[in-house]
Design brief:
Layout (H helix, E strand, L loop, with lengths): L9 E7 L6 E4 L6 E7 L13 E5 L8 E3 L7 E5 L30 E6 L5 E8 L1
Antiparallel strand pairs: 1-8, 2-7, 3-6, 3-8, 4-5, 4-7
């Protein structure tokens, strides 16, 4: 039996700039649920000091700020619904077209903007589930 991204999610680590400069993170493919967690760089070995995160949601037009505290292990935040019914996708990446060749608008529900809560940059792990 082959595993799909419901059991094995797509994983990617993004660099998050220091407080005030946001990085936009969008789904890399169609998904139902995205999980975010502050993490050390992918090739890091040693002690990791969490900085905390501030994020804004695309489905709220990036107007509300949400703080994620600098704890170890780092808390998570999510977009979408883990137990969403089939065909309730939130992640529609930019550049997709329908069978007729018409562009499909990128889903703002699967887009967040993130910055470090301190003057030190950090990293964020993003997991995308189908």
């Amino acid at each position: 039996m082959a595993l799909n991204t419901q059991q094995v999610p797509r994983r990617k680590i993004y660099v998050v700039p220091a407080n005030g400069t946001y990085v936009t993170i969008s789904a890399t493919g169609i998904c139902r649920y995205m999980l975010f967690q502050e993490c050390p760089p992918g090739t890091y070995s040693g002690t990791f000091t969490a900085q905390g995160l501030i994020y804004q949601r695309g489905d709220e037009s990036y107007v509300n700020n949400y703080a994620v505290p600098a704890l170890s292990p780092a808390p998570t935040f999510d977009v979408g619904e883990r137990d969403a019914k089939r065909y309730r996708e939130i992640g529609i990446p930019s550049g997709m077209t329908d069978p007729a060749g018409q562009s499909i608008a990128q889903s703002e529900q699967s887009t967040v903007k993130v910055t470090s809560a301190t003057s030190t940059g950090t990293n964020i792990l993003v997991l995308e589930y189908n």
